[in-house]
Amino acid sequence: MQKQCEPVEVVIELTEHHHNISIAKLAVAAQQYQNAHLWVCLDDVGTGDNTATLAEQLDPYITEYKFALQNFRQHTDFSTIISPLLQFWRKFAEIHHKFFAIEGFENATEIAIGQHYHANLLQGYYLGYPELVQIDATALNNSGTHKIIDFHSHEDRRRNLQ
């Protein structure tokens, strides 16, 4: 499937929701995406049910862990709440040989702080808004019912990993 979409790299983000899908079913879906050569990201790590335990169970099928700064905007004590979480997930990604992304940057100060965590990819409105990419949805699925939220070109993602 990824071959049909080049030069756009399709990233499947597994996000938390409350539809009672078992971890086993989630793992099967992640494996199917990986088998289709799609980039599989566990989104919002450290938030809600997206714990290290879940990450361990999905580990064989995950390419990237993404930490969402915006989920912690209500916390004003960066050094005792957010920083330890960022450090943990950066190290977790390193140990598991995964890419580490931080999203939710909204100003230059946040970027300066975020650079201390050596993420492979930084995302946020401060860096640019997601862009709708026109593709033939039938190449992905005959139903043509895809909502495209955020695509980054293959080159953009790779460039940010250097």
Task: Describe what you observe in this structure.
- This protein is of the alpha/beta class and 162 residues long.
- The protein has helices at residues 2-5, 23-35, 52-58, 78-95, 108-114, 154-159, and strands at residues 8-9, 11-14, 39-42, 64-68, 99-103, 121-123, 152-153.
- Strands 2-3-4-5-6 form a five-stranded parallel β-sheet.
- Mean pLDDT is 80; it is low at 140-162.
Question: Which descriptors apply to this entry?
Answer:
5-stranded parallel beta sheet, 162 residues, alpha/beta, disordered C terminus, 6 helices, 15% strand, two-stranded antiparallel sheet, 34% helix, 7 strands
Estimated share of beta-strand residues? 15-25%
Secondary-structure element string: HEEHEHEHEHEEH
Largest β sheet strand count, sense and barrel closure:
5 strands, parallel
**Helix-strand category:** alpha/beta
> Whole-number radius of gyration?
16 Å
Main sheet strand line-up: 2-3-4-5-6
Regarding quaternary structure, how should these chains be classified?
Answer: single chain
Q: What coarse outline follows from CA principal-axis ratios?
A: globular
Ends: how far apart? 26 Å
Number of helices: 6
